Amino acid sequence: MSQSLKGKKIAILVANGFEEVEMTKPREALKNAGAITHIISPVIPEKNKVLSWHNHNWSNTYNVDVHLEEADHSDYDALLLPGGVMNPDTLRLYSKAIDFIKKIGNANKPIAAICHGPWTLINAELVKGKTVTSWPSLQIDLHNAGANWVDQKVVVDGQLVTSRKPDDIPAFNDAMIELFAK
User: Fold this and answer.
1) Which of 88-92's residues contact partners 24+ apart within 8 Å by CB, and which partners?
2) What is the pLDDT of residues 34-48, one digit of tens each?
3) Is the pTM of this model over 0.85?
């Protein structure tokens, strides 16, 4: 299993305010499985850093590998969408972010979204007819977008793997790696 993603390139799309552990723990699992990960963000290119959120406070900064304006969906085998309330809410306002997600989805590449991450999947029109989970406050939004929302640690439906919260990360990571390895 440790090399099941060897050579695969995984995009991690985030804006300031992503939930730190929802990026760092899945990213670590991806790297341990042999994947190459790139943090992609619409943050100001000159700063080239994105700021995380942890325990209701700003936390660490992370280097942005590829600015969203320069990101090409065809360069990646899969996509990780961490949560945090601010992160997906900000990304939903960037048409380039939604376009990037939509192109990954339309290419039938796997997408993993945790907590509030599925919010962006709504805007990318990728949840209709899918069974998904998320942080509970997204339940009605996902239902209104045509998804079947369930309260489970992790849900895999086709190319999507979704999860509810940081406590579910171990199950999320296992399902994400299994889906990304296919």
Assistant:
1) 88/116, 88/117, 88/118, 88/119, 88/120, 89/116, 89/119, 90/15, 90/16, 90/17, 90/42, 91/13, 91/14, 91/15, 91/42, 91/120, 92/119, 92/120, 92/122, 92/123
2) 999 999 999 876 678
3) yes
Locate 67 and state its tokens: 């600015």
Q: How confident is the model at residue 3 (pLDDT cuts 50, 70, 90)?
A: low
Residue 148 and residue 161: Cα distance in Å, rounded? 13
Annotated active-site residue 73? The verdict is no
Tokens of 12: 């991690």
- State both tokens at 52: 């995380």
* 92-104 tens-digit pLDDT: 999 999 999 999 9
- Looking at 6-51, list the stretches that DSSP marks H as alpha helix, in order from N- to C-terminal side: 20-32
| List of domains in the chain | 9-181 (3.40.50.880)
Rounded CA separation 171/182 (Å)? 17
Catalytic residue among 67, 73, 116, 143: 116
Active site residue 116: yes
**Catalytic residue chosen out of the listed positions 54, 67, 115, 143:** 115
Q: Could you tell me how far CA 118 lies from the centroid of its own chain?
A: 8
